Amino acid sequence: MKSSNLENVKHVINGDYLVIPIETGYIKPNDSLDVIIEPAKELMENNDYLVIAETPVSVSQNRLVDESEYEPSLTAKFLTTVWSKYLWGYVLGPALKIKKRTIKNLRKLPEETKAHKEVILQLYGLKHALKPASEAGVDLSNAPGTYVSLLPENPQKVAEDIKKEIGKEVCVMIIDTDATYMKNGKYFTGLPTAINGIDADKGFLGYVKGQLCENMGSTPIGCSEIIDVETALKIANIAEDYQKSLSTEMKTIHSVKSLLGSEIDEVTMEDLDSIVHTPAVIIRKI
User: Which of 24, 67, 71, 101 has its CA 20 to 30 A from that of 286?
Assistant: First the structure.
């Protein structure tokens, strides 16, 4: 489909790039990703990018954990209340000039966060649990009830497999909204994984160091091609810009509660399926 024949296809322009959203219902555990792949086959041209959010991939892999099954330890309680809510919410956060939204959310951490910290401690260790928010890329916002989704398993292979199914010379990328940072031309992230060229698994220390460095935006965690980091970050951020423009964007547990009108632990699959999701976008150089 040529760019000139997009009159009946939803799209926006971002600088020198065309962005075509792929809209779906909620992708459930063990669902295939055909609702992304089939439209991509039809709409994509050679040299296009397909950028997919990490959460629908991880949910489709059934990478869900029920946090209600975890009993918070003393360490988890300390990390939630003393460390995250008070020390980061009132002292370190403002001192390091982290996002005002993050500070606001830290100051009103719900009781359930203690179980969440316990999950991070058990699955990823103290290195990630010390991070005051968005620990290890675990997503609280797009899973039902007391479930959370972990990062996808082997996102590199997922991206490569999706490219094969599309059957065109395209680049498939899976991204996470957690930041990549840069200092002296070196890229790093606190996330447990990232594409080649981004030093990953830095956890809390990477987060703190990142506050003193340049925030480069969303992190590509898997890519079907060998791609330079600068290009990958540029494409990832064009995709993230589109997501930020949506009224249904659910970045935090608080935005989920506001959007769906439910307490976070009462959100059902049906609630999540009641809104339009945009798990992927096609990006084309004009």
Answer: 24
The per-residue DSSP string of 26-50 comes to: PPPTT--SHHHHHHHHHH--TT-EE
pTM of the model: 0.89
Q: What is the mean pLDDT of the chain?
A: 91
Distance from the Cα of residue 216 to its chain's centroid: 15
State residue 26's pLDDT score: 92
pLDDT exceeds 80 at position 129? yes
User: Any idea which residue has 């945009």 for tokens?
Assistant: 278
Q: What is the rounded CA–CA span in Å between residue 67 and residue 164?
A: 35
Confidence tier at 47 by pLDDT (50, 70, 90): very high
Task: Map 149-196 to HEC letters.
Answer: ECCCCCHHHHHHHHHHHHCCCCEEEEEEEEEEEEECCEEEECCCCCCC
Place of tokens 């001192």: 95
Cα(26)–Cα(275) distance, rounded to whole angstroms? 8
Distances in Å between the alpha carbon of 76 and those of 55, 117, 173?
24, 5, 34
What is the DSSP code (8-state) at residue 137? G
Tokens 């620990």 correspond to 135
What letter does residue 109 receive in the DSSP assignment? Answer: -
